[in-house]
Amino acid sequence: MSELSYLMLTGSLSGLVSVLGHAVVGSAMDLLRERGGHGALSGAPPVLFSDALLHMLCGTGLGLLFWLSWGLAAVVDVPWWVRGLSFGSLCWLALALPSALSVALARDLTLKAAAVIASRWASTCLIAGLACAWSWR
């Protein structure tokens, strides 16, 4: 398997891991809130199949972008995880955050719902960046 297809597969699996992680954390938070008598977490949108597919495709694109950037080859003498966090953070700031804010403003979402959407995209970008940097090292 070529490096490009390996990075794209790694990125797509990272997107799915991100969605799975948010589903588990969200369910745990809902359970804790119900036990405390505060009710369910009302501001968090549910995880849908389309969300999982979108995050998987985004992870695939991040793997391609990582390959096109040569794994941030200009960043030298740093551990792989610093390169991965840098790549993921840059992608989140440049690609995902403006899109999430645009959706939140267009739909008049609550601050809590907008924060959940932004954190989902942040975790997708960071996990994909870390996974691609680890496989590149």
Amount of beta strand: under 5%
Q: Please provide the ordered H/E string of secondary-structure elements.
A: HHHH
The total of helices stands at 4
Q: Provide mean pLDDT, rounded.
A: 84
The end-to-end span amounts to 17 Å
- Counted up, domains total 1
Secondary structure topology:
Elements: H1 3-35, H2 49-68, H3 80-106, H4 111-136
Short description:
77% of the residues lie in helices and 0% in strands. The protein has 137 residues and is an all-alpha fold.
Key traits:
single chain, 137 residues, mainly alpha, 4 helices, 77% helix
Give an overview of the whole structure.
By secondary structure, the protein is mainly alpha-helical. The protein has one domain (3-136). 77% of the residues lie in helices and 0% in strands. The chain is built from 4 helices and no strands. The longest helix is centred in the N-terminal third of the chain and has 33 residues, at 3-35. It is elongated, with a radius of gyration of 16 Å. The two termini are 17 Å apart.
